[in-house]
Amino acid sequence: MKSAFTLLLVLGAAGASQLGCSDDAATPDDGEGGSSSTSSAVASGGSTTTGSGGGGGGSSSSTSASSTAASTTSASTTAASTTSASTTAASTTSSGTGGAGGEEPLSDEIPMVIPTPTNGAGEIRTQTTVLKNAANGGQDVYDFNNQKIGVNNTADCDDGEGQKTVFEVEDGVTVKNLIIAGGLPAGNGIVCKGDCTLDHVYWEDVCEDAATNSKDGATMRINGSIALHSADKIFQHNAKGGSTTIVTNSYIADFGKLWRSCGDCTANGGPRNLIIDNVRVDKVKTTVAGANQNYGDTVTITNLYVKGGYDEEDDKPKICQEYRAVTDHMGESEKLHGGASQWNTATCRVSKSDIKSW
Asked: Can you list the alpha helix ranges (DSSP code H) found in the chain?
C-alpha cells in the first residue's frame, strides 16, 4: 500500500459520552446513533449468541485465530465477482471539469465491485455483535470470508438516531472481508470502540453511518473498501483527543459526506484528524470532508480521484469544508467561508493538484 504520510500521534483517553451530533438544520444528525451499549450480544467468534453463520466460525462459541485465518479470502481476487446492479449503479459516469484528467489510482488496486456473498442471501442477526479482542477472550483478527451480515434494525435510516449497530469492535481488532447488508439491516454500521482496522469491508447501502470512530485518541483505518448510497455521512468521527480516521485504496459513491467531524456532540471538542489517500469518489452530494476549524481538526487528502473531475469554476464537488462546531446541542454547527472548498489551510491540508479525474 502506498503511504505518503506519517500518522499523527494518537493521544488521550476515553472522554465523556458523545451523542446526538448534527451539522445544521439542512442535514441529518451526525450522531453516533444506535444502542449498541445496551442491546449487544457479546460474541468472541464473530457471531451472536442467538444465531449461526458468523465470521470466523459461525457459532456462539469462541473460534481460534488459526481456524479463522484458514478462511481468509483475498478481496483483490474476489473483487471481480458479479454483484447486483443495485450495488454497482453508483459507478455511472458523471460530468465535470478540472483536475488532472484520466489518471489512474496509485498503488493497490481499488476494488470497484462488491464480492458475491459466500453465505447466499446473507444473515440478519437479532442483536448487535460485539467483536471482542484477544485480551478479552476474542480475537484480534476476524476474517468473515465475504459473508453478508446485517441486524434487525427497525429505526428508519432517515430518522437521525436510534438505529441498531451491526458490529461493535473492541480496541485493536481488525475486521476483514465482510459485507454489511444494505438498507434497514445496515443500521448504524460498525462502531469502533478503540483502534480498529476495517480491511476490505463493503457496505451495499449505508443506513445511518457506515462506520464510527468513537474512542478518544483512537485510530480507525479503512482500507480496500466500498461504501455506497448514503443520504448523509459515510464515516462519522465522534472521538476527540487527537483521534484519527484513515481511508485508503477505497471506492465511495453516492453519498452526502465521506467524513464528518461531529458538529454538536455532548462535551464536543477535538482535535479530530482525517487522512485520505488513493480513494475514488462519485456522486458527492455535499462534500468529501467536513471539519471543525474551531476544534483544531485537520483534513489531509492526497490522490483523491473524482468521477468526471473537480469543477473549479462551480466548486463541485465540494472537497473540504470548514465548520464552526458547537457542544452540548447549544445551537447548530455553522459552515464557514460560505461553504466553499478550502485549500492549503491549517484545517484543510489539501492541494488542488491532489484532486484528479477518473
From this structure: 36-39, 65-69, 75-78, 85-88
